[in-house]
């Protein structure tokens, strides 16, 4: 009896799963649901100039290979200007390419080549916070009201030695 109930339950489960899948495929799929995305961590990908750090020209040099693998998009971990206390997740300038990775011209070249090969380029944008070295943050500290409003402010906390520390739980390096 137990066996029959269990089988009925699994048949029902299969039936339900089947109709969910069917419902899902009745709509037009978006490109990101059907495209293979190749994620690149630029710093350790390809170093084009031998300074030991991966860079944008290195990525561009591999686009044909990536295409051959069947990918239709690349996703780049952060490439924006950063003091790299948090390996690029601490963005100092959202309008600039990190100098160790190259220049805006290098990035334009990457986009041109990607377009030619019909590869989409997805950038990892981190809007949650900026680096403490961001122009916006520095302007805010200097009393520029526009940039002051870009941030949520809290008083610093006093540690056991009586020193003022940032009011967050970020563990710096
Ligand atoms: C940004 O904020 C979102 C939402 O709170 C969080 O899930 C994500 O982990 C945050 N990302 C970073 C890099 O801080
Ligand atoms: C930013 O934070 C880092 C890491 O905590 C610190 O070493 C650096 O001096 C800070 N820079 C500024 C401009 O506050
Ligand atoms: Ca390099």
UniProtKB/TrEMBL annotation:
Q: Which SMART domains match?
A: Aamy
Gene Ontology MF: a single term: alpha-1,4-glucosidase activity
Please give the InterPro entries that the UniProt record associates with this protein: GH, GH13_cat_dom, O16G_dom_2
This protein's record includes keyword Lipid metabolism:
no
Give the matching SUPFAM superfamilies.
(Trans)glycosidases
Top-rank taxon of the source lineage equals Eukaryota
Extent of the signal sequence: 1-18
Q: Does the keyword Signal apply?
A: yes
The UniProt catalytic activity note for this protein reads: Hydrolysis of terminal, non-reducing (1->4)-linked alpha-D-glucose residues with release of alpha-D-glucose
Location of the Glycosyl hydrolase family 13 catalytic domain: 39-173
Q: Which Pfam families match?
A: Alpha-amylase
Top-level enzyme category: hydrolase
The Gene Ontology biological process terms listed for this entry are: carbohydrate metabolic process
State its Enzyme Commission number(s).
3.2.1.20
Keywords, alphabetical: Signal
What's the protein called, per UniProt? Answer: alpha-glucosidase
Organism, as annotated: Pararge aegeria aegeria
């Amino acid at each position: 009896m137990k066996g029959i109930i269990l089988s009925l339950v699994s048949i029902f489960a299969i039936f339900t799963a089947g109709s969910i899948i069917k419902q899902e495929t009745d709509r037009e799929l978006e490109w990101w649901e059907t495209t293979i995305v190749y994620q690149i961590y630029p710093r350790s990908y390809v170093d084009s100039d031998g300074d030991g750090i991966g860079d944008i020209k290195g990525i561009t040099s591999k686009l044909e290979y990536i295409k051959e693998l069947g990918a239709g998009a690349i996703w780049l971990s952060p490439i924006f200007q950063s003091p790299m206390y948090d390996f690029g997740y601490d963005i100092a300038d959202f309008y600039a390419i990190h100098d160790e990775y190259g220049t805006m011209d290098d990035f334009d070249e990457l986009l041109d080549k990607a377009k030619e090969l019909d590869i989409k380029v997805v950038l990892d944008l981190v809007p949650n916070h900026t680096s403490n070295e961001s122009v916006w943050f520095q302007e805010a500290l200097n009393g520029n009201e526009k940039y002051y409003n870009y941030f949520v402010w809290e008083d610093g906390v006093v540690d056991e030695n009586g020193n003022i520390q940032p009011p967050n739980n970020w563990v710096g390096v």
